[in-house]
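Example record

The entry below shows one chain as it appears in the dataset: sequence first, then structure tokens.
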Amino acid sequence: MSLLLNRNSFGNPSNAGKLLSKEAANSLFEEWVLNPKLRVHMLQVAHLMQCWAAEKEGLSESGIWKWELSGLLHDADWDQWPDQHCKKIIEYLEQLEIDPEVMHAIASHGPAHFGVEPENNMDKMLFAFDELSGLIHAYSILRPGGYEGMDLKGVKKRLKEKSFAANVSRDEIQDAANRAGILLDDLIAFIIPRQATITNSVNV
């Protein structure tokens, strides 16, 4: 099954800055994503995007929301329409005339799968957080204390164990970090405490 989008342009540039409200985004999230585990993943990635935009990019409130929205919806169609992954949510957001950068970020969160290269920082960080976030969460589930006491060394050990979270591509994780220009160690260190915060808040 090919998920290639076969295009690199999404939406209309004249819609720059137009975003879903938080209420509309949450309504879409609730309607489209029924799998509790996938919901957790998407909330985690959204939170990481929010934190990075605020702490590292120094963006305005609307800029931070744009990053968070991209994370929140990046897998919106995976649950019910896996054979249309990215295509369906992008086409829906195009109909709503949403900022093209949101759609490009979603389209480029797996360049090997969708054929769209990450270009700006928002694209690159969504790609960087996606797979690594999932592996770190899988590790937390195995630990008696969950995220409490989790450290860089433990995560890196799991990264080297190819049988652990075998569906998570180590090559993609490293590629994403390289594209973002961030050391993998620094990326892991950023994720652990912030992902712990959002995970505890959604009672996983």
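Notes for this example: The first helix runs from residue 22 to 32. The mean pLDDT is 96.
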